[in-house]
Amino acid sequence: MTFKLTNAKIVTPNGVVQGCLSFGSELIADISESTQLNGEDCEGDWLIPGIIDLHTDNLERHFFPRPNIDWDPISAAIVHDGLCISVGVTTVFDSLSVGSFGYASARTPDNLIRLTEALHIATDEKLLKGSHRLHWRCEAPSEVLREWLPDLADAPLTGLFSLMDHTPGQRQYRNLDKFLSMWRREGLSEADIEKRMMERKANVVKNDSINREFVARLAKSRNLPLASHDDETVDHIVEAKSLGVKIAEFPVTLAAARAAMDAGMTLIMGGPNLIRGGSYSGNVSVSELVENGLQIGFASDYVPRSLIECGFALAGGPWNWPIEKAIETVTRTPAHAVGLTDRGALVVGLRGDVVRVRIVNGHPYVRGVWVAGQRVG
Asked: Is 366 in contact with 357 (CB distance < 8 Å)?
């Protein structure tokens, strides 16, 4: 049975088609300039592909809505999924950290298992409207990474690994004074800070290289993509490429970002960086990368709504990109980075993941969402 969305501005890879999009079962069956209204009238709204988010911490936020207050993980997954759908994100890589410093409440082994099992149950029972995968964020200096990761990585929904190093004084936290101010606000004395810094640096020397190679082998054995996280230098990119990294996620300097692009990696930046006008950590801004001609995609990081805003923001001032190029940064670019060639574009024969958008006072708002041809929002 065919279902049509009519009277829409349809964003295809080749430009905008003013007309009609038809679903045939789960796929896009036709895109035409037809003016007939024998379907759902979109009243001139935009139709864009379902957004693909390769990195969101949003699930953890619903699992632990306040420090030391955990929620039922299936319920958390359902609420998280509903939020993603409401802002047009139809494919979600839920990022969970393995071996992060301090083992925050949501990142203990027991809670990682609870969240993983909840996602699988919610998926199997068809409680989720979007398509979900797991993104394992691997803290390279960690003492426990090689112990914890193999069992977690066996989860059927595993779809992406990334390599991280959040040691203060480099990469994301290269502004050491700014980072240490956070520890001081926690009430740590200068002696405690010095002790903690020595432990962090010792773990880098002991574990970083071994763990990076371990994760790279694990990803390769499962034929899954590997990303690097917060690259700062050209040497970081050279090392990442030697390990088989295909995605440079949130590089923190222009030099690292340019080296990653030259190495054939997909650049994925944080949506909030563009929308807020810069990095909250004081690192390179998306605007600077765009001004230097770098090709980028986006992940939401910590604000799911930032993705749809990025797509439409780039189509306006000061960038004025063609709308199809702007929308690709949150659809086709991230999809192809992880090998999802069945979605990410409004093309006949691809999955019917479609988002209806209306611009109100310069801001995009979602008015309808279809996943595999079925309305879910």
From this structure: yes
Q: What is the SS3 assignment for 262? A: helix
Cα(260)–Cα(265) distance, rounded to whole angstroms? 5
Q: Dump pLDDT digits (tens) for 56-94.
A: 999 988 988 887 788 999 999 999 999 999 999 999 999
Two structure tokens written together for 35: 């003016």
Spatial separation of the C-alpha atoms in residues 115 and 96, rounded to whole Å: 9
Q: Which two tokens stand for residue 321?
A: 């990109």
At 307, is the secondary structure helix, strand, or coil?
A: helix
Q: Which fold has domain 51-342?
A: TIM Barrel (3.20.20)
Q: How far is residue 353's CA from residue 345's CA, in Å, rounded to a whole number? A: 9
Report which of 133, 141, 45, 47 is spatially closest to residue 331, judged by C-alpha positions.
Answer: 47
pLDDT tens per residue across span 93-133: 999 999 876 556 668 888 899 999 999 999 999 999 999 99
What CA–CA distance (Å, rounded) separates 217 from 356? 41
**What is the amino acid identity at position 234?**
V
CATH class of 1-49+344-377: mainly beta
The pLDDT confidence band at residue 13, using thresholds 50, 70 and 90, is: very high
Contact 309, 273 (CB under 8 A): no
Domain spans of the chain? 1-49+344-377, 51-342
Q: How many CA atoms lie within 13 A of 159 on its CB side?
A: 21
